[in-house]
C-alpha cells in the first residue's frame, strides 16, 4: 500500500462517509434502535455521521430512511406513518421502507415522476429485540446471529440505551485493556470481590493473554488456584467492527460469588454504534442462563444504587464517582481525546490495545483493496451462531502468560 493511502490510527476512529474507517464500518450490520421502543412515531437518529429517520410502517415493517425528504428537504421525523410507509407532511410524498416513492398528491394524475424518485433507504432487521441496519453498498451480507440474541432457554434483558459524547473507539479499545480493571476500578466491584482467589486484587492482579479469533480478539485473564493443575479465568471478547462481551457481571456487579457461585452464567454483550466522530450509542443485552430467578432484579438494584449515588454527587470533578464502574470508565475514556490526535506512550501492558488496532487497520485495508473484511459473513455462513464465549470459571492450567503475549 502506498504511503498516501496507508491506514493511520486516526482512520480507526473516524466514521464519516468517504473516510477509511467510515467505509469499513458500513460493511457491517449496526444496531440502530430497540424494537420495543419503536412505536407509532418516527425516531430521528444519526448513524455514522448521517441523519436518518427510523420508523415502523402500518404493516409492522421497520425502515430507515434519509431524514430529509428528497422533494424539498422537510424532516421526515415529523412524517405521518401509514400502512404503506412514511408520508412527508409538507407535500404528501409517500415512501415505503425501501425508499420507493409511492405517491405525490400534487403531481398530475397520470404522472410517472414518482417512479423516478427514491429516498435514501437502508435495510433493517430485528434480532433479539434489537434493530440492525446495513448502511453499506449492496448486496447486504448476512446479519450475524449473535448467541445472546438467540432463544436458548435463558432470560434476556435489554438495558436502557447509553449515549456518550466522545469518540466511540475509546470505549471499544478499553475492552482490550484488562489492566485498567484492577487499577481504575479498584474501589469498585472488581477490587473487592471474593471470586477466584480475589481475582482482580490490586496487590495480586491476574496475568493475561491476547488470543486472535475468527471474529476478533479475546483477552484471557488467568490466575492460579490452590490446585496446581487448575486456574481461574475471566474471558473478555471483542468482535469486529464494534461489539464487545464480558462474562463477569455476576461477580463484579451482583456479587454472586459471595453466595457460592463460582462459574458465570451471564453473557453481557455490548453493541457500539457511532453517531459521528464525537458521539456514540451503546446497546447492551444481558442473557442469563443461571438458576437464580431474581438475577435481573438484583442487577437492577445495583444499577439503581449507582444512579442514586450519581444524582447525589457534587458538580465539577464530582462527576467521577468512585465505586461506580461505568462512571469511572466514562470519565477515563471521555477525557483521553481522539485516537490519532492525542499523544501516547504505549508500554508492554498495552499489548491488547496494540493488537486490536492492528486488527482494525487490517480490516480497513481489506475494504480499500475491495476484499471482505474480517467479521463480515459469506452468504453460506448465514446460519452460523456467533458465540463470543466469555467464560468465567476454572479450567485446566495452561502456560503462564509472558510479557508481550502469545
Itemize the secondary structure elements and their pairings:
Elements: H1 9-13, H2 20-25, E1 29-34, E2 43-47, E3 50-56, E4 62-66, E5 80-81, E6 86-87, E7 94-95, E8 101-103, E9 121-122, E10 124-127, E11 130-134, E12 145-146, E13 155-158, E14 162-164, H3 168-174, H4 179-184, H5 189-192, H6 195-198, E15 207-212, E16 216-224, E17 230-239, E18 243-246, H7 249-252, E19 266-276, E20 279-288, H8 295-312, H9 325-334, H10 351-368, E21 385-386, E22 392-396
Parallel strand pairs: 12-21
Antiparallel strand pairs: 1-11, 2-3, 3-4, 4-9, 5-6, 6-7, 7-8, 10-11, 13-20, 14-20, 15-16, 16-17, 17-18, 17-22, 18-19, 19-20
3D architecture notes:
The chain is an alpha+beta fold and 406 residues long. It has two domains: 31-134, Rieske [2Fe-2S] iron-sulphur domain (Rieske Iron-sulfur Protein, 3-layer Sandwich); 145-396, Naphthalene 1,2-dioxygenase Alpha Subunit, Chain A, domain 1 (Alpha-Beta Complex). Helices cover 20% and strands 27% of the residues. The strands form five sheets. Strands 13, 14, 15, 16, 17, 18, 19, 20 and 22 form a nine-stranded antiparallel sheet that branches. It has a four-stranded antiparallel sheet with strand order 2-3-4-9, with no helix packed on it. The longest helix has 18 residues, at 295-312. The protein is globular, with a radius of gyration of 23 Å.
- Assign the CATH superfamily of the largest domain: Naphthalene 1,2-dioxygenase Alpha Subunit, Chain A, domain 1
CATH architecture of the largest domain: Alpha-Beta Complex
Major β-sheet, in short? 9 strands, antiparallel
Mean pLDDT: 89
**Radius of gyration in whole Å, from Cα?**
23 Å
CATH topology of the largest domain: Naphthalene 1,2-dioxygenase Alpha Subunit, Chain A, domain 1
Shape: globular
User: What's the CATH class of the largest domain, please?
Assistant: Alpha Beta
Q: Quote the beta fraction.
A: 25-35%
Give the terminus-to-terminus CA distance.
27 Å
Using DSSP, what is the number of strands?
A: 22
Provide the number of structural domains: 2
Alpha plus pi helix count: 10
Helix content: 10-25%
Helix/strand structural class: alpha+beta
Unreliable segments (pLDDT under 50, ≥5 consecutive)? 400-406
Amino acid at each position: 500500500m502506498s504511503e498516501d493511502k496507508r491506514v493511520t490510527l486516526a482512520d480507526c476512529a473516524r466514521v464519516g462517509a468517504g473516510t477509511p474507517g467510515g467505509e469499513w464500518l458500513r460493511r457491517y450490520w449496526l444496531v440502530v434502535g430497540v424494537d420495543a421502543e419503536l412505536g407509532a412515531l418516527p425516531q430521528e437518529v444519526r448513524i455514522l455521521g448521517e441523519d436518518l429517520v427510523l420508523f415502523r410502517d402500518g404493516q409492522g415493517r421497520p425502515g430507515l430512511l434519509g431524514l430529509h425528504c428528497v422533494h424539498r428537504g422537510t424532516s421526515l421525523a415529523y412524517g405521518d406513518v401509514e400502512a404503506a410507509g412514511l408520508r412527508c407532511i409538507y407535500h404528501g410524498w409517500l415512501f415505503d421502507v425501501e425508499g420507493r416513492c409511492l405517491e405525490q398528491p400534487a403531481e398530475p394524475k397520470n404522472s410517472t415522476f414518482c417512479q423516478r424518485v427514491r429516498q435514501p433507504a437502508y435495510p433493517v432487521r430485528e434480532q433479539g429485540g434489537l434493530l440492525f441496519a446495513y448502511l453499506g453498498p449492496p448486496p447486504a451480507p448476512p446479519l450475524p446471529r449473535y448467541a445472546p440474541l438467540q432463544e436458548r432457554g435463558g432470560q434476556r434483558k435489554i438495558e436502557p440505551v447509553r449515549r456518550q459524547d466522545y469518540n466511540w473507539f475509546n470505549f471499544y479499545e478499553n475492552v482490550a485493556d484488562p489492566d485498567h480493571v484492577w487499577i481504575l476500578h479498584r474501589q469498585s466491584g472488581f477490587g473487592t470481590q471474593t471470586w477466584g482467589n480475589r481475582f482482580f486484587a490490586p496487590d495480586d492482579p491476574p496475568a493475561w493473554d491476547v488470543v486472535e479469533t475468527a471474529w476478533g480478539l479475546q483477552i484471557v485473564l488467568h490466575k492460579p488456584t490452590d490446585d496446581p493443575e487448575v486456574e481461574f479465568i475471566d474471558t473478555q471478547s471483542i468482535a469486529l467492527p464494534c461489539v464487545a462481551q464480558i462474562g463477569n457481571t455476576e461477580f463484579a456487579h451482583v456479587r454472586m460469588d459471595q453466595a457460592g457461585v463460582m462459574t458465570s452464567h451471564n453473557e453481557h454483550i455490548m453493541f457500539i454504534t457511532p453517531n459521528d466522530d464525537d458521539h456514540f450509542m451503546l446497546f447492551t443485552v444481558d442473557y442469563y442462563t443461571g438458576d437464580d430467578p431474581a438475577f435481573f432484579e438484583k442487577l437492577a438494584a445495583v444499577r439503581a444504587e449507582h444512579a442514586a449515588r450519581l444524582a447525589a454527587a457534587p458538580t465539577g470533578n464530582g462527576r467521577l464517582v468512585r465505586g461506580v464502574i461505568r462512571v469511572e470508565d466514562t470519565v477515563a475514556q471521555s477525557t483521553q481525546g481522539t485516537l490519532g490526535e492525542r499523544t501516547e506512550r504505549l508500554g508492554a501492558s498495552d499489548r491488547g490495545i496494540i493488537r486490536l488496532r492492528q486488527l482494525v487497520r487490517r480490516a480497513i485495508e481489506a475494504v480499500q483493496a475491495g476484499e471482505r473484511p474480517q467479521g463480515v459473513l459469506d452468504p453460506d455462513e448465514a446460519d452460523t451462531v456467533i458465540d463470543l464465549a466469555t467464560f468465567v470459571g476454572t479450567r485446566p492450567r495452561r502456560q503462564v502468560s509472558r510479557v508481550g503475549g502469545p
